[in-house]
Design a protein that fits this description.
With 317 residues, this protein is of the alpha+beta class. The protein is built from ten helices and nine strands. The strands form three sheets. A four-stranded antiparallel sheet has the order 7-8-6-9. A three-stranded antiparallel sheet has the order 1-2-3, with no helix packed on it. It has a two-stranded antiparallel sheet with strand order 4-5. Helix 5 packs across helix 7. 31% of the residues are buried.
Amino acid sequence: MSSADGADEPKLVTFTNHTDNTPLTPEKPLWANYVKGVIANFGFKTSSFNGAIVTSVPLGGGLSSSASLEVAMCMFLEQLCPESKKRALKEKALLCQKAEHEFANVPCGIMDQCISVMGQEGHALLLDCRSIETQAVPLSDPNVAIVVINSNVKHNLSNSEYPKRRKRCEDAAKSLGLKSLRDASMSLLEGKKSELDDVTYRRACHVITEIQRTQDAVTALRKNDYELFGKLMVGSHNSLRDDYEVSCAELDQLVKLALEVEGVYGSRMTGGGFGGCTVTLVKKSAVEKLTNHIKAGYEKATIYVTSPAHGAGTLAV
């Protein structure tokens, strides 16, 4: 496999796959391991092929660029092997997650793969990460826009810091007598606060309160209560900043700038943190004002005005 990276998006990479029964193994270039992992775990035999990948998804911006590559590769292989199309969407997402675990050596969750596979136009997706059950939640109001703002910075701490946070959460769950913080409550955590160090307590506090915020956010969206949804977004960012400590000065500045604009409902960091992007819910009539304010206060920002779209699909040629 080879790559040709330019400074401008979209980026183009090319690769060749030979089905000579040689086992695939992770190696350089590192980006190719996402592709190799999907091929190795695909479970169906395909013919050899030459391929090219073009992407406009910001790399390393916390916008699921790796999951989108995995899912796109999986769907490409399906075109070479029609019988594989019978695979359930859930299984497709799990296949792509496994590829990332085994070949890219990234212990990611399942959220990014699920939304890449199961996204529906005009809807958010509520995901139960334990059962992989999903619910489509309407988000199609023409008077509302979603604005993604890329800070264009990356502090490269995610790979080293996230395992520490996961370990803290596991320790907290064990102290509460639970397998997972999914089953915890703030009252239970408060009852055990004296037995936990401050960092472990705050990590657990973020997880427990974020689960509640997610449930409240679904209720708000179903009622078109964007004011409440926006407050939940801000609460989520504050918790990610203060309790989980995965934000950074640049993301905090972008959230602050967004919240200064009339017509903005809420804003928060998205993705793994330590850089990358924020996501902002705003009245469509205020998008231009938001864009101008961000550019004035943070010159290196890249701004995308978006709306919920379908997940991965194919185009007839």
